[in-house]
Amino acid sequence: MTHGVSPVHCTFARLCLVSAGHLLFPPSAVAQGSVTLYGLLDTSLEVTNPGSGWAARLDSGAYRGSRVGLRGRESLGADLQLVLALESGFSSADGALAIPGTLFNRQACIGAQGRWGEVRVGRQYSPLYIPFKGDLDAFGAGTIASGLSNLSKITPYASNAFTYLSPMIAGFTTTLMVAMRDSSANDGNGIAGYYVMFEYQLGAMSVQYARQQTHGAEALRANVGGVSYDFGRLRGWLTFFNGDGGSPAYHAAGGSISAQYWFSTQSRVSVGYARALECSSAGAGANQLSAAFEYDVSRTLQLYFNTAYLSNRGSATFTLRSVNVTGLPVAYPGAPVRGVQLGLIKRF
């Protein structure tokens, strides 16, 4: 004889579970808001010679900073939404926070979004970081292969910031940010800096320009911009940059040219050349040649390989660095730097 549960009992149990779910989580509340957990692990092996011999090290965040975060969204009605972001950067090599003692060191902001655009308040990416990171050279301004990243200087994050992001109007978008000083700065005007970014898209062409001016002991003025064109499988970039200030002190200007070719929907190769002139020292500067290969194993797993040669001139001390990786200091002013990097990115 077979023992089991009658269909009537099963139906009754389902009704009880559904009723309890509606009591604990009302359908209207579930539909109005959502919070998403996401993250990224970027780990690579780098072998570099800064003029004093080859050195190997394990890097985290060479291409895209390792992070974990929460994104929230809630409908407020009338096409208005509340948005929030909490994002913590860390090292996938040793687990340490990207900024010691600061948990949400990448983002900690809240805002509102509608047809008129978006407003955010709190710690955020600077507007220069968005075009600088992803759309101004073939290397996404990441890894040792990006001459744009190695030879220029910007501020990637801003605290105590108010930001407005416009919708696209006739191909044109803009981002405006003002950062307030921390109360400990004891400064009368209360402004830590301003940032602006403009972008124009016309078919396969994109034109971008961004500027920042920060204040205080590490004040940095910087400009970066360029144009790109998508030919289909091939895309090319032409970029310029300059800056003055920061810590360590930076005073240089230059540009880069790069291209990326897609062999398939999964694999691509990039090549590039970048040049910078040090404005504070006659005859000083650097040139960089780079190549990279990327392969998407799946939608969430990517492999990358990069190689670069950087030639310093005069008293210049530029080196090969990455997004969240400090470059090895050159052995002497004018020393050449060369390196290779093999890494993977896992998103979740």
Summarize, please.
It contains 4 helices and 17 strands. By secondary structure, it is mainly beta. The chain has a domain at 114-347: Porin (Beta Barrel), CATH 2.40.160.
Question: Could you explain the architecture of this structure?
Answer:
One of its GO terms (biological process) is monoatomic ion transport. Residues 1-31 form the signal peptide. The protein is mainly β and 348 residues long. It has a domain at 114-347: Beta Barrel (Porin), CATH 2.40.160. The protein contains 4 helices and 17 strands. It has helices at 7-24, 27-32, 129-134, 147-151; strands spanning 33-49, 55-60, 67-77, 80-89, 107-114, 117-125, 157-165, 172-180, 191-202, 205-214, 220-230, 234-245, 250-262, 267-278, 285-296, 301-313, 337-347. A 16-stranded antiparallel β-barrel has the order 1-3-4-5-6-7-8-9-10-11-12-13-14-15-16-17. A hairpin with a 3-residue loop joins strand 11 and strand 12 (234-245). The longest helix has 18 residues, at 7-24. The radius of gyration is 24 Å and the shape is globular. Residues 1-31 have low confidence and may be disordered.
